[in-house]
From TrEMBL:
Cited Gene3D superfamilies: FAD/NAD(P)-binding domain
All residue ranges annotated as the Glucose-methanol-choline oxidoreductase C-terminal domain in the record: 376-432
A Pfam family this chain is assigned to: GMC_oxred_C
Stretches assigned to the Glucose-methanol-choline oxidoreductase N-terminal domain: 188-251
GO molecular function terms noted in the UniProt entry: flavin adenine dinucleotide binding; oxidoreductase activity, acting on CH-OH group of donors
Required cofactor names: FAD
Entry's family note: Belongs to the GMC oxidoreductase family.
Domain of life of the organism encoding this protein: Bacteria
Originating species: Mycolicibacterium aromaticivorans JS19b1 = JCM 16368
Keyword set, alphabetical order: FAD, Flavoprotein, Oxidoreductase
Name the UniProt record assigns to this protein: Choline dehydrogenase
Length: 446
């Protein structure tokens, strides 16, 4: 019997790869080191009633699920960089925003038509819709108020596509691995992979932490942007490009008290709006009712939830060749990603923008004026980049196959080669499904 393809990691990107392979009849098993942390396992933690009633309690409730590399590191050492080990990965914790990267963000590796095809497939697998919140009165009024201001600057505002749907006006169902794999028959085995066994460029098996080995016809490492290079390093696969030119999103966060005229009453559907990046304003902004990582200050402690919205702006950081993630032989990880002048100019412009937009909608809630989350918290990308040739700047070919291997693929936002402003999971999933198609074509040709 043919050995299965082993997908290492059960987050949303591992799940879309497994689904794609299973749909083609390819035997596939997901190996996941983390425990189940939701009920049912692999479903989104946020689908619990208590978080619908009290969204601001969500961030604190999941804080213990984030394992930081070094919270005491200086800013350039990315004190916010963290991973989550769980059935479903960070995809049982995420906010499910799935914008498509703008044309100017997509780089040159994948043709525009192919990008569109795979983004469509990824949207379908992740259950992404862009009209879920159309009935939100706040959404309509905020858009109406901001649109003239934005259009005058060549920008737009529209609903933020999201992986999920409304169960009723007050209840969002957040999509996670459990939804992506429903009906596929794919199993998630509890197993921590110590190393991938590669001999003369061919992967034959993986070795687990308990010393057992599992045969594999191919391996797809989908262990997240940080654990993927760590596992490669442990497996003796250490291309010089690994951990180089990485990028991430400094996140500017604030919470607003909306003008009363913008509100739609206590039963209003929460808004979820998106101001896409443009070449002139190349950061990604969302106005939504999400969750509040910082406590408010007096006199703004008791504000009715329907008057509150958060504003979040993600600023891309350039893929500078000297941005590094270094993995030591003892497994310790160190980041060095200083913000350069261009990055800082972009961040200052995003801050000015939030001030302008907030002024048009109401005022900041006391204690929740714009602030940068710990750097590295959001969306580390480019730790194991894709590229067209093995020129020392990339770890995989343009289909995610590790250079000089036959059957070892990477599926993670870590392969995204260029700096992106939008939340990256959808783009990472699209590239991963494309890699799965290449793996299937390769397997079918044997
Ligand atoms: C609070 C929060 C909100 C977010 N919101 C958004 C958002 O709105 N939009 C967006 O695009 N992104 C968002 N993200 C980021 C998003 O969650 C990640 O991009 C996404 O989960 C990455 O998916 P993945 O499958 O590559 O990896 P992960 O979800 O990180 O899963 C990787 C899995 O691999 C497992 N693993 C690692 N090493 C091994 C090993 N050796 N053996 C076995 N298993 C292993 C880990 O235990 C983990 O479960 C958010 C993240 C957080 C924390």
């Amino acid at each position: 019997m043919t050995s299965p393809v082993m997908v290492i990691g059960s987050g949303p990107i591992g799940a879309v790869v497994a689904r794609r392979l299973a749909e083609d009849g390819c035997p596939v098993t997901i190996l996941e080191a983390g425990p189940p942390i939701s009920d049912p396992p692999g479903h989104h933690v946020r689908n619990q009633d208590r978080f619908h009633r009290d969204p601001d309690s969500y961030f604190e409730a999941i804080a213990s699920r984030l394992r930081y590399f070094d919270e005491a590191a200086p800013a350039r050492g990315l004190p916010g960089a963290s991973v989550s080990a769980a059935v479903g990965g960070q995809g049982v914790l995420w906010t499910n925003n799935c914008p498509r990267p703008a044309l100017f963000e997509r780089g040159e590796l994948v043709a525009a038509g192919e990008w569109d095809h795979y983004l469509d497939v990824a949207q379908r697998y992740l259950g992404v819709a862009a009209d879920t919140f159309a009935g939100s009165v706040r959404q309509q009024r905020i858009s109406h108020r901001l649109r003239p201001l934005l259009v005058a600057a060549g920008r737009e505002i529209r609903e933020q596509p999201m992986a999920g749907h409304l169960v009723d006006p007050a209840t969002i169902h957040y999509v996670a691995t459990g939804d992506i794999l429903a009906g596929t028959g794919v199993r998630i085995e509890h197993a921590a992979v110590r190393r991938v066994i590669v001999d003369r460029g061919r992967v034959s098996a993986v070795e687990l932490d308990d010393g057992t080995t599992l045969d594999a016809s191919a391996v797809v490492v989908a262990a997240g942007a940080l654990d993927t290079p760590i596992l490669l390093h442990r497996s003796g696969i250490r291309p010089q490009a690994m951990g180089k030119r990485l990028t991430y999103h400094p996140v500017l966060y604030s919470q607003l008290v909306l003008d009363r005229q913008l509100c739609g009453g206590a039963d209003d559907v929460p808004p979820r709006l998106w101001i896409p990046p443009t070449p002139a304003a190349p950061w990604n902004t969302m106005i939504l009712r999400d969750t509040n990582p910082v406590p408010p200050s007096p006199p703004d402690i008791d504000i009715p939830s329907d008057r509150l919205v958060e504003m979040q702006s993600f600023c891309p950081v350039d893929n500078h060749p000297e941005n590094t993630m270094t993995i030591g032989d003892d497994g310790t990880v160190r980041f060095d990603v200083p913000l350069r002048e261009a990055d800082q100019v972009r961040m200052a412009a995003a801050l000015a923008d939030q001030n302008t937009l907030a002024g048009a909608l109401g005022r900041f809630r006391s204690g929740l004026e714009p602030q940068w989350m710990a750097l590295g918290f959001a969306h580390v990308m480019g730790t194991c980049r894709m590229g067209r040739s093995d020129d020392g700047t990339c770890v995989t070919d343009e289909f995610g196959r590790v250079w000089n291997t036959d059957n070892l693929y990477l599926a993670t936002v870590g392969v995204i080669p260029n700096s992106l402003a939008v939340n990256p999971t959808l783009a990472g999933a699209a590239l991963a499904i494309r890699s799965a198609d290449r793996l299937l074509a390769q397997q079918n040709s044997y």
